[in-house]
Specification:
Layout (H helix, E strand, L loop, with lengths): L1 H19 L3 H11 L22 E4 L3 H16 L4 E5 L2 H11 L4 E4 L5 H11 L3 E5 L5 H10 L3 E6 L3 H8 L2 H8 L4 E4 L2 H9 L5 E3 L11 H14 L4 E7 L3 H12 L4 E6 L5 H10 L4 E3 L12 E3 L6 H7 L2 E4 L12 H5 L4 E3 L7 H9 L3 E3 L3 H13 L1 H17 L3 H10 L1
Parallel strand pairs: 1-2, 1-4, 2-3, 4-5, 5-6, 6-7, 8-9, 8-12, 9-11, 10-11, 12-13, 13-14
Helix pairs in contact: 1-8, 3-4, 3-18, 5-6, 10-13, 11-16
Length: 416
């Protein structure tokens, strides 16, 4: 019965892939209207393009968050003299990887999960080993990698209860994919348990790589420059906000009518202009990070329209509301804010970083806001209380420092 179920699920998956194939160019065209990067390197989406060199360590980081998380692990391979190939799926992820690694690593797109495209990619790249970041469970990618004969690892793996429920509907195929990894390095014990329940083998808990990404000194210096531009007003940061959240934040900020500068940084760069229009429509005076100039005292909102500067934004703020947590997106990464000592506020939805958020709150590094009105109240209290901000900032630094070490554990696991 299980063999038949696996056959049917494989068949359904391949059928859906082929059904979607004619629509891929149209999808790239539409996405490229907002983010031009989707119109570049299209041949790489189907396994073409130039390659680095044979025998490289291949690390797949689908987008921005995964690329940042992969940075400490990439650095360890580079320090060991290994050639590194980094693949991404989004233009923002590619731009982040290129910014982080420069010419030290080769960066390109991973093909869509068609077996022939994956084979074309692997036959040209010929990696010595593969590392898949977090939860990129693509059946053909894993199967073709296994056929090519190099070890494949799932690192910094996470699996929320909600995601696990979705994968259980295709348990036979999910189990086959997970068993295609030589080893799995999970972020937490709960992630490990869910992955094992879905069929993963050789699972160990190594922690979250995001804790090992130290704030670069250049970013801290840039944060001080931002603060000089801002002047003496309190600064509230809304970081990595998602679609629908900006309108809520701007509405609550307008009602507060506080003498505060709101720094608004959307999660996705293709939405910078869209969010800028929302700010203007809400009646706020606005400047943009890309203008690279001092902020006028009448400016109410500063739009963070840049990539790779989150550490600087956190370093310049009195407190930070973490995006993705006001609406049911699951929350974005709060570790970077803690690492620079920025007091953190999260909304009600933090499933993507459940353990991290709960522990940060318990350690006094973060507060939970029930909604945007509650965020305004708590941010206002923090703005007036330097001592409390200092205590939260120090708690965040200690919290971040106490969880370092995942990169060394993952490197040892993959190198063994």
């Amino acid at each position: 019965m299980s063999a038949m179920m696996l056959f049917l699920q494989r068949l359904l998956y391949q059928f859906l892939l082929w059904l979607a194939l004619p629509f891929i160019p149209f999808r790239l065209f539409l996405r490229g209207l907002k983010e031009r990067g989707y119109w570049r390197h299209i041949d790489e989406r189907f396994g073409g393009g130039a390659y680095f060199q044979e025998g490289a360590v291949w690390i797949h980081a689908v987008s921005v968050g995964e690329a940042r998380a992969a940075a400490p692990l990439v650095q360890r391979f580079l320090d060991a003299g290994r050639a590194v190939l980094v693949t991404c799926m989004t233009p923002a992820g590619r731009a982040t990887a290129e910014l982080l690694f420069g010419s030290r690593a080769h960066v390109r797109y991973l093909p869509y999960d068609h077996a022939w495209a994956i084979r074309r990619f692997l036959q040209s790249a010929k990696p010595a080993l593969g590392v898949i970041m977090e939860t990129e469970l693509w059946p053909n990618l894993v199967r073709e990698s296994n056929k090519a004969g190099f070890p494949l690892y799932l690192v910094n793996a996470r699996m929320s209860e909600r995601s696990a429920g979705g994968y259980r509907r295709f348990l036979a195929l999910t189990g086959e994919v997970l068993q295609g990894f030589k080893k799995v390095a999970a972020q937490t014990a709960d992630d490990a348990r869910r992955l094992q329940d879905l069929g993963a083998r050789n699972v160990s808990v190594t922690g979250n790589l995001k804790f090992d990404a130290d704030p670069p000194q250049a970013q801290l210096d840039l944060g001080r420059q931002f603060r000089e531009w801002f002047g003496s007003r309190p600064v509230w940061l809304a970081a990595s906000t998602r679609d629908g959240e900006e309108k809520m934040i701007l509405g609550a900020f307008k009602k507060a009518n506080a003498d505060v500068l709101l720094v608004l940084v959307p999660r996705h760069p293709q939405r910078f202009d869209e969010v800028g229009n929302l700010v203007r429509m809400a009646g706020f005076s606005m400047q943009r990070r890309s203008e690279s100039m001092s902020v006028h005292y009448t400016t109410q909102v500063w739009l963070g329209d840049s990539l790779g500067e989150m550490f600087a934004y956190y370093a310049a703020a009195d407190c930070a509301l973490i995006g993705g947590s006001l609406l049911p997106y699951g929350g974005q990464n709060l570790i970077e804010a803690c690492a620079v000592g920025c007091p953190v506020l999260v909304g009600p939805y933090t499933e993507n970083f459940k353990e991290v958020a709960e522990e940060a709150i318990a350690q006094g590094a973060a507060l939970r806001a029930a909604n945007t009105e509650d965020w305004v109240v708590q941010a206002a209290v923090l703005s007036e209380n330097h001592v409390e901000r200092h205590h939260m900032g120090e708690a965040g630094r200690q919290f971040s420092a106490a969880h370092k070490g995942a990169a060394d554990k993952a490197y040892q696991l993959v190198s063994a």
